[in-house]
Amino acid sequence: MSSQPKTLGELRKSAWTEERTANRSVRQELRENLLQKMEKGEPLFPGVHGYDDTVIPQIVNAILSRHHFILLGLRGQAKSRILRGLADFMDPQIPVIEGCEIHDNPYRPLCKACRERIATEGDNTPIAWLGREHRYVEKLATPDVTIADMIGDVDPIKAARGGRNLSDELTIHYGLLPRANRGIFAINELPDLAGKIQVGLFNIMQEGDIQIKGYPVRMALDVLLVFTANPEDYTARGKIITPLKDRVGSEIRTHYPATLAEGMSITSQESWTKREGKRRVEVPEYIREIVEEVAFQAREDKRVDKRSGVSQRLPISTLENVLSSAEQRAIRCRDSAVVARVADVYSATPSMTGKFELEYEGELRGAENIARELVRLAVGKTFTKYFSNVNFQPVIQWFEIGGELKVPAHASSTELLEQLKRIQGLHEHIEVLDVRAKDDAAMQTSAAEFILEGLWSHKRISRSEERGFFAETRKTSTEPRDPREPSGRMPRRQFN
Q1: Residue 162: CB atoms within 10 Å
Q2: Exposed, middle or buried: residue 448 (CB in 10 Å: 0-12, 13-18, 19+)?
Q3: 126: which of 27, 314, 399, 427 is 20 to 30 A away, CA to CA?
């Protein structure tokens, strides 16, 4: 902006006085701006759901206390998203010495180059303005990270070009942490960071001393350090050293959505469901609930490793895959609308199997079978929610007297609906799910299939890949049948 000071002399005469700028740390800046947002009633972490009464109040406490803090939680619990949202609590822009690698405060420069520059140029020292988006630095911790990556190293090329000794401070190549000066430095998966690197971190957090290649450099960095970690990783892949844990002010636990509604709001926000094209695209509410319920069922299933967790990415990826399956069917069958069905949820199992780790029993069953069983359980629970006190005996009797229905792979919604209407008592329950289904063949077909899948999940009817939906005829006699005698089953009606 043209009205902003461009030199140190202009800065001294502006609202950015030395008292305001030099004595206000980044943690104090975050505290003040957070208080302003709370006074105005503004949302603190837009797009983060389910943490309003648990995680967010603890983060607020940490910021108001000016603490370094760590988020502990399983994968897919929005830890990185929360840390990135901290940038919104910083000032839109701050003044820095132009060209400085570590964003030096014009009134209190840390690096030797800036101190010499101000001594030479005085009030004519040029000033630049740093936006909040450049004040957040993030690093994924991996075992191969070095001190040079995090803190810095001596650059022989810089020394040779400047004709300086290697012990000269001006030969330093700064690492990520000094470059985050006057901002936020976030480290994901902290236990993966080698112990000697963690030592370098807690030294900076407390004393502000940096040692590079044995040369002591006093550099009191102004930075907020925040971390994420999976609690199980403490023993599985590494650990956080005790002195570092002692210097972290707050340890905050994250969690998965507590209710289905919270999970659905996250999935709806993050998934790509607004597809382009000439066909109307729709995912019925009960399909969204089934997809979300799969994740809830997986988190409770004993065959799924709870230490690893089931990421919220499972329902997000699954919902996208469900809609893609519906798209593919609509194009092949020349349907005018793309409406998701339960069959599409089963088709989306490839987006589930990679999202959970299995215990020994689960490994014996196989990820594909576990995923299909989770879908069946989710369908059953969702079906109960909509039809807990509904009498489906007429539908069941239709199958028991010999009716069968196999859903054709390439039948349009209109063609399939004609077959579904022949099932006695089925059509009258469709409007319970969605009143719009009354005049929409695709919606009616989806609703009818959900009812049949629900009855199958509760073992009221049977289903197989070869025969579709059917019901085995129950024998009235308790005597064992001679295998040479006919079964006595009634002829079945086949609709294809």
Answers
A1: 12
A2: buried
A3: 27
- 457 by Cβ neighbours in 10 Å (0-12 / 13-18 / 19+) ranks as buried
- Please compute the mean of the pLDDT values over residues 463-483 and round it to a whole number: 65
DSSP 361-407: HHHHH-HHHHHHHHHHHHHHHHHHHH-TT---HHHHHHHHTTEEE--
The answer to whether 75 and 308 have CB atoms below 8 angstroms apart is yes
472-479, long-range: CB < 8 A, 24+ apart: 473/400, 473/402, 474/400
CA 60 – CA 231 distance, rounded (Å): 22
Alpha carbon distances (Å) from 202 to 102, 196, 209, 226, 227: 19, 10, 10, 12, 12
pLDDT in the model for residue 168:
65
Gap between the Cα atoms of 309 and 207, Å rounded:
37
Q: Is the pLDDT of residue 41 over 90?
A: yes
| Cα 349 to Cα 314: distance, rounded to the nearest angstrom | 10
Q: Which of 172-181, 195-204, 305-314, 442-451 has the lowest mean pLDDT?
A: 195-204
pLDDT tens for each residue of 354-402: 999 999 998 999 999 999 999 999 999 999 999 988 899 999 999 999 9
Block residue for tokens 């002591």: 216
17 φ, ψ (degrees, to nearest 5): -70, 165
Give the residue with greater pLDDT, 124 vs 233. 124
What is the crossing angle of helices 367-386 and 285-300, to 10°?
A: 130
- Residue identified by tokens 């919606």 is 443
Task: Name the residue with higher pLDDT: 49 or 171.
Answer: 49
pTM for this one?
0.85
Instruction: Note whether 395 and 442 are within 8 A (CB).
Output: no
Distance in angstroms (rounded) separating the CA atoms of residues 164 and 229: 42
Determine the 3-state secondary structure of 70 from DSSP. strand
Q: What is the pLDDT of residue 199?
A: 83
